[in-house]
Design goal:
alpha+beta, 7-stranded mixed sheet, 3-stranded antiparallel sheet, 28 helices, globular, disordered N terminus, binds 1-deoxymannojirimycin
C-alpha cells in the first residue's frame, strides 16, 4: 500500500466514527505497511542483503528449534548448556519463572505459528501432529494463568489460525479438523476456575488438573496478582469465544478488564503494579510501562483493533495520556507513584518496557517511540544485550538477559512505520550479537550477566515465539511470506489472530462511548488510523532528525539521582531540596536542612551514621515531603553503592573443541589472588587436583603443573586450597561447589573470602563454580579429555580465542563485522574483609546479588524512616555529579533544567504552610507509609 505513494505513508484516515470493523482492519494495517523507497542521504539495504539476513534468521531458528526437538522435546524448554530438556520438578526450582512450565511441551506450542511465518509449512504440519499426539493439558502442575494464556492458549490459537488458512489454500493441512482449537477450548475451560473471585480478577496460578479449590490444587491462597496478569487475556479469550461460539471466555476477560479500569487511580489515571484480587486495593502503587503492567496497555489498544469496541480505545487513550504526562520523560520511561505521579518511584528502567515504542507506533505516536528506541539501542550497543534493568544513567542494574524479544518487536514496528533502513541495521546488529554471544552448540543460551558475557542454562519459549518472527518479518518482503500478515494482529507473545474475528460471533454487546473519560485532547487519533502525512510532515528524514540529538545520550550521560523533584522550586528560584547524593554529614548547612526535614542523624559505634525521619518533627509538610524523598533517595543510593562495591562475577569460558568459546559459565570471584579485572585473562587446560578437596599438599603435582586446577569446595579455607595448588605449579584454580545440584540459576553467587590472614602470597586467579556449572567442565573432561578454559572478567571474543589454526578450521568463521568485545568495566574492589564472607558462611550470607537491604530500613509500622550510611558515603563530592554533559555531548543534570509548568504544582507549593495544608496529617503519614512500603517491595521484586 505504501509503496504506491513513494514515501513513508503507512496509514489512511478513516471517517469519524467509522464502522468498527473498518476501524479494526484499518488500524491493523497501520502496523504492517512499509515503504521500500528511501531518499538519498540514508543508506538503503539491498534486497540481496535483506534476503541474506532473512536466511540467517532461518538458519538460527533451525539451530534453536532443531536442538529443542532433538534434545529436549517433549519437555517444556531446552537447557542449551547441558543440552537436555527442562522438566519441572527434575531441576532445582527457579521460583515464579517455572510457573510457565506445565509439562505441555511449551516450546513446541509457542513455536507453531513461527514455523508458518518462516515458511516452514512442512515442519508446521509435523509439529501440529506432534502437539495433537503428545501434549497433555491435564497435568498435576501449578501454572501461571497469564503465561499459560499468552504462550499456550495463544500458541494453540495462533496455530489454529494458520492451520485453517493453509487448509483453505488447498495444499497443506488438508486433514486438519479444528483439533488445535478443541485443545484450546479444553485449556480455556481449565483456566476459568481462576476467575472465581468477587472482583472477577483471576487468581495468578491454577493447577491444570485440580483447578483452584480442591485440596490437591496446592494453589488458590494467593491474594494478589499483577495488573498485566489480569489484564492480558482479552485477545486470546475473545478469539477463543469467537472461534468456538462459547461466549464465556470473552465475558470473563472483559469483566477483569472492566474491574481494572474501575480501580485506576482516578486523579492520575494510572494503575499500580499489583492488585488484591479480592478487595481490588492496589498492593504496589508504583506505575510504569514495563514489568507487571506492560501488556495490560497493549491489550487495551489491540482489543480495540481486534474487537472494534470503542471503550477499549478510550481507556487506552486515557491511560496513554497519563503515561505521556507522568511516566514518559523522553527518551526515558520512569515509574512513578500512582497517587503522586510527579514523584519518580525508581531510578532504573526494566527491559520489558522495550515493547513500548512498538505500541506507540500502533498508537501513531512516532516521535517518543523513536526516542526511546534509540536510547535502548545505545544501551544494547554498550552491553550487547539489554540488561534486565539499567539505571537512568545507563549503568547495569540487573545484569541478566533472557533473550527477550521486546526490542526486536519495536524495531520491526518502527521500520514498518518509517521505512527507515536504519532499523534494518539495528536488526542486523541484533542478529550478530545473538550469534556471537548467545549461540552455543546446543541452541541459544540466555545471558546470565551481560557484563561478563556468561550464560544461563535457559532458552525461553518466547525466544522462538517472538524473536525469530519479528527478525524474519523485519527483513522479509511481502512475497517472502506465504500469507498476508496484514490480515492478523500480534498478541503479546506474537501469536497471530485473524482480524476477521471482529465480525464473527459478536454476541457480547459492545460498549459505546461514555462521556466519563472523553476530555482528552486526542482528537487527531481518536477515530483515525495514524497517518504519516501528519506524523512525519512529509519529511522522509524525520526519524533520523529525532535520533540525531540523542546519538550520545548513553555514552555521554552523567550519574544522576532521582529526577523530576519539586520542579516548581527551581522555577521560583528557590533552593532545590537537598539530594541524597550531595549530602555531607560534615556540612553544617546540610545538617540544618536535615533538621528542617525532620531527619535526625545518629552516630553509630561502628563509624556509620543512621538517619531517622520523624515526619512530625519536620518544619512543614513540604519539608516533611522533602525528608521522605531524601530518605528514599538515601536508601536507594545506599543499595546501589553496596551493589557497586561487590566484586562483579567472572567468566569461565570453555575454549577447546567443540565449545570454541561458545559456552561461558558464571563464576564467583575471590577476594585474593590475581584480580582478573586488572590483568589479562588466564588460559589453560584443566586438571583435577588430588586430593580433590585441595586441603593438603597435592599428590599429583605433575598433573596440575601449568594447568588450571579443579578443586572441590569444603573441608578447608578457600585460601588454603589456593596455596596448595599454587605450590603444585597450577596457574589458576576453579573451586567447584560440593552441594550437588547447586547452580547460579538458583543460588546467589558469592565471592570467596580469604582466611583472615595476609593472602598476598596467593598470586594465581581463583574462581568459584556452582556444582551444575562445574559439572559442565567435568562432563567435558570425561568426553573430550583435554579441556581448555579461559578465566576472565568478561567472555572474550571468539575470534581472538581461535588462535589455534586447527581450531579455526573446525569452527564456523565469525562475521568480519563482529565488533571486538568491549573492554572490562571499571571494577570497584571492596577492600574490606567482611566477616560475613568467611568460608563457612552460608552462600545466602554472601550474596553478590540481589544487594542486601540497607541496614536500618524502616519498618512501615513505625512511621519512621531510617537509613544507614557508611562513612565513605558521607563525603560524596557534589561536584562529581555536575560534571558537564548533555544530550549533545556535554553533561547536563536534568534537575537543573528549566521545567515545564507542572500539572500538580499545588501539591507541593512551597508557600503552603504546614497548618494550611489541606491534606490531613493522618493521610500524609499513610501516604508516606505506602511510599516506603512500595519502595521496599520494588527493591525486593523480581522482574
Ligand atoms: C513474553 O512472554 C511476552 O512478550 C510477555 O508479554 C512479556 N515478555 C515475554 C518476553 O520477554
Amino acid at each position: 500500500m505504501s509503496e504506491a505513494g513513494g514515501g513513508p505513508g503507512w496509514g489512511f484516515p478513516v471517517p469519524q466514527r467509522a464502522p468498527w470493523s473498518l476501524v479494526a482492519a484499518t488500524a491493523a494495517l497501520c502496523l504492517v505497511s512499509a515503504t521500500s523507497v528511501w531518499p538519498a542521504g540514508a543508506a538503503p539495504m539491498s534486497r540481496e542483503e535483506r534476503q541474506k539476513l532473512g536466511n540467517q534468521v532461518l538458519e538460527m531458528f533451525d539451530h534453536a528449534y532443531g536442538n529443542y526437538m532433538e534434545h529436549a522435546y517433549p519437555a517444556d524448554e531446552l537447557m542449551p548448556l547441558t543440552c537436555r530438556g527442562r522438566v519441572r520438578g527434575q531441576e532445582p526450582s527457579r521460583g515464579d519463572v517455572d510457573d510457565a512450565l506445565g509439562k505441555f511441551s511449551l516450546t513446541l506450542i509457542d513455536s507453531l505459528d513461527t514455523l508458518v511465518v518462516l515458511n516452514k509449512t512442512k515442519e508446521f504440519e509435523d509439529a501440529v501432529r506432534k502437539v495433537l499426539r503428545d501434549v497433555n493439558l491435564d497435568n498435576d502442575v501449578v501454572v501461571s494463568v497469564f503465561e499459560t494464556n499468552i504462550r499456550v492458549l495463544g500458541g494453540l490459537l495462533g496455530g489454529h489460525s494458520l492451520a485453517i488458512m493453509l487448509k483453505e489454500k488447498g495444499e497443506y493441512m488438508q486433514w486438519y479438523n479444528d483439533e488445535l482449537l478443541q485443545m484450546a477450548k479444553q485449556l480455556g475451560y481449565k483456566l476459568l476456575p481462576a476467575f472465581n473471585t468477587t472482583s472477577g480478577l483471576p487468581y495468578p496460578r491454577i493447577n491444570l488438573k485440580f483447578g483452584i479449590r480442591k485440596p490437591e490444587a496446592r494453589t488458590g491462597t494467593e491474594t494478589d496478582t499483577c495488573t498485566a496478569c489480569a489484564g492480558t487475556l482479552i485477545l486470546e479469550f475473545a478469539a477463543l469465544s469467537r472461534f468456538t461460539g462459547a461466549t464465556i471466555f470473552e465475558e470473563y476477560a472483559r469483566k477483569a478488564l472492566d474491574f481494572l479500569w474501575e480501580k485506576r487511580q482516578r486523579s492520575s489515571n494510572l494503575v499500580g503494579v499489583t492488585i488484591n484480587i479480592h478487595t481490588g486495593d492496589w498492593v504496589r502503587k508504583d506505575s510504569g510501562v514495563g514489568a507487571g503492567i506492560d501488556s495490560y496497555y497493549e491489550y487495551l489498544l489491540k482489543a480495540y483493533v481486534l474487537l472494534g469496541d470503542d471503550s477499549f480505545l478510550e481507556r487506552f487513550n486515557t491511560h496513554y495520556d497519563a503515561i505521556m504526562r507522568y511516566i514518559s520523560q523522553p527518551p526515558l520511561l520512569l515509574d512513578v507513584h500512582i497517587h503522586k505521579p510527579m514523584l519518580n518511584a525508581r531510578t532504573w528502567m526494566d527491559a520489558l518496557l522495550a515493547f513500548f515504542p512498538g505500541l506507540q507506533v500502533l498508537k501513531g505516536d512516532i516521535r517518543p517511540a523513536i526516542e526511546t528506541h534509540e536510547m535502548l539501542y545505545q544501551v544494547i550497543k554498550k552491553h550487547n544485550f539489554l540488561p534486565e534493568a539499567f539505571t537512568i544513567d545507563f549503568r547495569v542494574h540487573w545484569a541478566q538477559h533472557p533473550l527477550r524479544p521486546e526490542f526486536a518487536e519495536s524495531t520491526y514496528f518502527l521500520y514498518k512505520a518509517t521505512g527507515d533502513p536504519y532499523y534494518l541495521e539495528v536488526g542486523k546488529t541484533l542478529i550478530e550479537n545473538l550469534n556471537k554471544y548467545a549461540r552455543v552448540p546446543c541452541g541459544f543460551a540466555a545471558m546470565k550477566d551481560v557484563r561478563t558475557g556468561s550464560h544461563e542454562d535457559r532458552m525461553d519459549s518466547f525466544f522462538l515465539a517472538e524473536m525469530f518472527k519479528y527478525l524474519y518479518l523485519l527483513f522479509a518482503d511481502k512475497e517472502d511470506i506465504i500469507f498476508d500478515i496484514e490480515d492478523y494482529i500480534f498478541t503479546t507473545e506474537a501469536h497471530l489472530l485473524p482480524l476477521w474475528l471482529s465480525t464473527t460471533n459478536q454476541s457480547i454487546p459492545k460498549k459505546n462511548t461514555t462521556s466519563e473519560y472523553t476530555e482528552l485532547d486526542d482528537s487527531n487519533f481518536d477515530w483515525t488510523c495514524p497517518n504519516t502525512q501528519i506524523l512525519f510532515p512529509n519529511d522522509p528524514l524525520y526519524a533520523q532528525s529525532i535520533r540525531e540529538p540523542l546519538k550520545n545520550v548513553v555514552d555521554k550521560s552523567c550519574p544522576r539521582g532521582i529526577i523530576r523533584v519539586r520542579e516548581e522550586s527551581f522555577r521560583s528560584g528557590a533552593k532545590p531540596p537537598l539530594r541524597a547524593r550531595d549530602f555531607m554529614a560534615t556540612n553544617p548547612e546540610h545538617l540544618e536542612i536535615l533538621k528542617k526535614m525532620g531527619v535526625s542523624l545518629i552516630h553509630l559505634k561502628d563509624g556509620r551514621v543512621q538517619l531517622v525521619q520523624h515526619a512530625i518533627q519536620a518544619a512543614s509538610s513540604i519539608d516533611a515531603e522533602d525528608g521522605l524523598r531524601f530518605m528514599q533517595e538515601m536508601i536507594e543510593l545506599s543499595s546501589q553503592q553496596q551493589k557497586e562495591q561487590q566484586l562483579p562475577p567472572r567468566a569461565v569460558q570453555i575454549v577447546s573443541h567443540p565449545f570454541f568459546g561458545r559456552v561461558v559459565l558464571t563464576a564467583g570471584p575471590a577476594q585474593f589472588g590475581l584480580d582478573l579485572s586488572k590483568h589479562k585473562e588466564t588460559r589453560g587446560f584443566v586438571a583435577s587436583s588430588k586430593p580433590y578437596n585441595g586441603c593438603s599438599e597435592l599428590t599429583n603435582p605433575e598433573a596440575v603443573m601449568g594447568k588450571i586446577a579443579l578443586i572441590q569446595r569444603g573441608q578447608c579455607m578457600f585460601a588454603e586450597k589456593a596455596r596448595n595448588i599454587q605450590n603444585a605449579g597450577a596457574i589458576g584454580g576453579i573451586v567447584i561447589d560440593d552441594n550437588e545440584g547447586s547452580s547460579s540459576d538458583t543460588a546467589p553467587l558469592f565471592q570467596m573470602a580469604g582466611d583472615g590472614k595476609d593472602t598476598d602470597d596467593i598470586k594465581i586467579p581463583m574462581l568459584f563454580l556452582f556444582s551444575k556449572e562445574g559439572s559442565i567442565i567435568l562432563d567435558a573432561i570425561r568426553e573430550y579429555e583435554d579441556v581448555e578454559v579461559l578465566l576472565s572478567d568478561k567472555a572474550k571474543d571468539r575470534a581472538a580465542i581461535l588462535k589455534d589454526p586447527e581450531m579455526e578450521s573446525e569452527e564456523q568463521p565469525s562475521s568480519e563485522n563482529d565488533p571486538p568485545n568491549q573492554s572490562a568495566e571499571q571494577i570497584i574492589t571492596s577492600s574490606s574483609q567482611d566477616p560475613d564472607l568467611a568460608e563457612q558462611a552460608a552462600p545466602e550470607e554472601r550474596a553478590l546479588s540481589p544487594p542486601p537491604e540497607p541496614a536500618g530500613a524502616p519498618s512501615p509500622a513505625e512511621m519512621d524512616n531510617a537509613a544507614n550510611i557508611s562513612p565513605s558515603e558521607q563525603n560524596s563530592d557534589p561536584t562529581e555529579n555536575h560534571e558537564s554533559t548533555s544530550l549533545g555531548g556535554e553533561c547536563t543534570d536534568l534537575d537543573d533544567q528549566p521545567q515545564e509548568p507542572s500539572e500538580t504544582e499545588e501539591d507541593s507549593n512551597p508557600n503552603v504552610s504546614w497548618g494550611q495544608k489541606a491534606q490531613p496529617i493522618d493521610s500524609i503519614l499513610a501516604d508516606w507509609n505506602e511510599d516506603i512500603e512500595a519502595f521496599e517491595m520494588m527493591e525486593k521484586d523480581e522482574l
